[in-house]
Here is the input.
Amino acid sequence: MSSLYFDYNATTPIRREVAEALAPLMGPEGLFGNPSSLHSSGQRARAILETARERVASLVGAADSAEIIFTSSGTESDALALMGIAFAHRDEGRHIVTSAVEHHAVLKTLQDLRDTHGFEVTFLPVDSSGRVAVGDLERVLRKDTILVSVMAANNEVGTLQPFNEIGDLCREKRVVFHTDAVQWVGKVPLDLKKSSVDMASLSGHKLYASKGIGALYVRRGIRFHPLFQGSQEKGRRAGTENVPGAVGLGVACALLQKELPTEEPRLRSLRDRLEQGLLKTVPRCGVNGNPVERLGATTNMFFYFVEGESLVLALDQAAFVLKDPTVPGVEISTGSACASGLSDPSHVLKAMGLPREKIQSSVRFSLGRFTTDEHVTEALALIPRVVERLRSLSPLWQEAVS
Amino acid sequence: MNVLVAMSGGVDSSVAAALLAEAGHRVMGATMLLLHKETEFGCCGSTRDIEDARAVCARMGVPHYVLDFSGSFEKNIVNPFVDSYLAGETPNPCIACNRHVKFDALLKKAMALGADAVATGHYARVVKKEVTTQIPHPALSQEEREKQDFLPLLGEGGPEGRMRAEELQKETEKPLFRLKRALYPEKDQSYALYHLGQAELARVLFPVGNLTKPEVRATAHRLGLKIADKKESMDICFIPNGDTPGFVKSRAEQTGRFSPTLSPGPIKDLKGTVLGTHRGVAYYTRGQRSGLGVSLGRPVYVVSLNAETNTLYLGDDTDTECQETTVTDTVWSDGSVPTKPQDFLVQIRSRHTPAKARVFPTPDGARVVFETPQRAVTPGQAAVFYEGDEVRGGGRVAEVILVTREDV
Here is the structure.
């Protein structure tokens, strides 16, 4: 019994087209060269690497493919941007501004810059829908502010930040603006060259390429200090390039660019159907985040009197829980999971000021390319049963309904 | 059967899970997160034990989850543990954890998740005994009820008689679950499970309860489990360095629980003569010999700790002997509180040879009178009542009446 996957914000499958595009790179006759080598194998590898770079540049609307640096992950892209700017500009100032709802890749890096490198970090609050107010940013910017990093779209609740306005303000105040666009790229049409974004991070495995590849967009003219020293990526990210990873990412970007106009509304309507269906059939549940300004394929919902952690586990093991071997599992998550497999109370929902009962009972559904109408139908048949089962054993629920 | 296995990452619970999976049960592995290291943005670390449990599950092809019980653990185990030491007692946190976390919070969660039973790696056995009570059908008249004695004859007398028989033969089948020592007593852990009542015993499995430790390790090897030779942990899980006094002190300070028992006070002999100064009675335990800093030319032992006066009393080994103790918070395995005194074998700490005693039920629990005096019966520990190898009940040692003196 294959399970119903509703966790695309965590990771996506590698598309067949991506896998097929990689076949010519394998084996002794394949395109295996080191892009830095002078010989023909090296030149061929260089050529496909640059094609990949152009494809990524095209999807995000970069002015020039040289503005794309390949990295190992979204996390590395974030670290390269944040640490790179901090270290390059430390003599001009040591103040950095970010939001309270960033991904851990940003939060933890900035914590480290604060705790071990002497930077000062201001965390902007968000409203109950998870959005930063540009006015708040304006108030905290100082003469010694060297960097602002606010994500484009939140991974947990899907809320979109007013990043164009933030970018414009940063431009006006001459502060570098970085955005973690991991959940944004490939989901919404982008034209970075027309925006005020200076740096943007993206990750391959969130858009149907493989894990182990990411990219950082760096607007021409932005100076930063590389984390690894060496000649690759124009000296900005040393280490022999992950050619297969980059080629896969390039193919995935090219496909997304083509499909985006039809795929976005398709997923939005599936998400709405799932959300509306649950709101209708499950008592005492609701949606977290901004109802309008949010990603089309993400919904974060609370189910009172059910622990989010238990719901994730119970949906995964729906056959066990319902004692019915014919039902599939449903794969979802609470906020962001970490290595131990345990989820913490979401810092995003906390920052949104949600009450404890909501935070503890919230889970995220995220849809993607391979989500079908049938998947939503099956999930809608299953989720209410599992929620009811969990609630039937909760004394608090018994009290609430009696 | 759907079984949730509580997995610590050690060899016993790993083999418990593996044996159940091998037997064809639908197994779900769960490792409880008991201690949570809070950071600013609240992400957790990954511990070695979680990884070990996960690897075992992966090997057996069963799912594994980490369940957060850190809140419950802090509230029900760690805080009372510290309070107990501050009151001059010697608590047993493993029993408290079994009682309030593993076989309560976890058991409830497992039931909510559709489990039919929870299994652990404890060395103990649960034996199910069918008890059949014949009760008369409620529709029967008083006169007919009294005819119960004629049951063997029923069935005679035509259709009417047969119908009567059916009515009378309605039975309540009430299985009785008995908790017994492990088959091999060296590893027996039934002492730490005495509090399990019928509701819990009906829902727990101890798959290694009739195996020896070498058999458990051999099973782990046979199944190719990486943890087959993993060292056994002897420490209290939340005090990995074994420094209980240090933990009690820092924990009490962190949580603002100041107690005079953390400060130095007098050491006296049983006649009341001051022998020296101790560091605080919270740091000592009854029967303790080393680390007293008093030299009398003969071995001396902690006989009593008075938390109110922060006084430590020392004496000879025999002075720690007690004939009688009160027990509070008693539980009875079969759920029925006895009304008459009963003789049991009573075990008063985890490595103690049970001693013959008569247990007198009292309104607050029980009074235990030993046949021969027992050394270092310690408040805060459990007194468990055995009948042969079967646990019949137990409680918490409260007031100990020493043989030598009663006023220390």
Q: What stands out?
A: The longest strand of chain B covers residues 390-402. The interface with chain A takes residues 2, 26, 28, 33, 40-47, 50, 54, 63-68, 108-109, 111-115 of chain B (CB under 8 Å).
